[in-house]
Write a structure and sequence with these properties.
Shape: globular
Structural class: mainly beta
Number of domains: 2
Number of strands: 22
Helix content: under 10%
Strand content: 35-45%
């Protein structure tokens, strides 16, 4: 069994909710068809979606310009009106369609982080620009003397080819199998991330062994020099990455998981730390790959432990 979750050292002072989906109409750089308006939503035909409730509209935020533009994402305005809204543009400079995960941080005038959240923009075509917006909400009372966010920072941008994008829900992929990574656990330099598999098709999915993994760097290039171990006992015990593999037969709606475990220890003279934000996963050797984003910070250890596939004890809610 997996160990009890450890505390993530993640900044979660609040939650950003997607304010609405902008269009890809003539007003944007995409040149694509305009997305339909959703009744009651703050969407605007021009693609910006902070809404008419923004006092004075969104303006170019102050602060370091490098905070507002990163890896094809550009913050175009911040409004302190209804909901403290930030508008942004995303341009795909790749040769094919990509799905993006962007981490934004709302900051006070003094630079204090007020809220942080990841936002996903699916399937942006090559050369296209889309407009979106996020709104800070659910933070509760702000610190004394804080009037609200003065600027928004793009903390991180991750992207995966749309054909390999993972998903926890939505339509079942053509393979009939859904694969995704969880948020993981971390404490005292130990990292544990679960890789989850659901049979969302109509047939039986058979597993026997370990997931096949390929580590990729920020530029989606293979990472060399890392030993992928079958089993995680040599890295840490009690993580769930132990035990011998067993043949599994997953009926429709059933799930399985495998566990990744590593340490981020850095030792002097052992070379440069290795960071591999992406992992390309194949449930079995012949399966189509799925790219997940576990943010592997392997330090200088050069090792990643992988547990065998294990069947989950219960079916998803709503399944017979």
């Amino acid at each position: 069994m997996r160990r009890a979750p450890l505390s993530l050292p993640a900044l979660m002072a609040g939650v950003l909710l997607l304010a609405g989906c902008g269009s890809e109409g003539a007003g944007s750089h995409s040149g694509g068809p305009e997305r339909p308006q959703v009744p009651g939503s703050p969407n605007r035909p021009d693609g910006s979606s902070c809404g008419a409730g923004s006092a004075g509209g969104a303006s170019v935020p102050p602060g370091d310009p490098s905070e507002r533009e990163k890896d094809g994402v550009r913050i175009t305005g911040v409004s302190r009106g209804a909901g403290h809204c930030a508008e942004f543009e995303l341009t795909n400079h790749e040769a094919g369609p990509f799905t993006y995960t962007i981490t934004f941080t709302f900051l006070s005038g003094a630079g204090e982080a007020l809220a942080s959240q990841k936002e996903t923009v699916p399937s942006v075509g090559p050369g296209r620009t889309v407009k979106r917006a996020v709104t800070m909400s659910g933070t509760g009372p702000l610190p004394s003397g804080t009037r609200g966010p003065a600027r928004v920072k793009i903390a991180e941008v991750r992207s995966v080819p749309t054909g390999e994008a993972s998903s926890r829900g939505g339509p079942c992929p053509p393979s009939g199998v859904r694969v995704y990574a969880d948020d993981g656990d971390a404490a005292m330099g130990l990292r544990v991330v679960g890789i989850h598999l659901e049979n969302c098709g109509s047939g039986t999915t058979r597993l026997n062994g370990y997931p096949r993994l390929q580590l990729l760097d920020k530029a989606h290039q293979p990472v060399d020099g890392v030993t992928i171990l079958q089993g995680g006992g040599s890295i840490a015990t009690g993580t769930g990455a132990d035990g011998a593999p067993q043949p599994l037969a997953l009926e429709p709606g059933e799930r399985a998981h495998a566990t990744l475990v590593w340490r981020n220890t850095v030792e002097g003279g052992a070379g440069d730390p290795v960071n591999a934000p992406y992992v390309r996963v194949r449930a079995t050797p012949g399966d189509a790959p799925v790219m997940v984003i576990p943010e592997l910070d392997l330090g200088t250890t050069g090792r990643l432990g992988t547990g065998p596939w294990k069947k989950d004890g219960t079916k998803p809610p709503g399944r017979p």
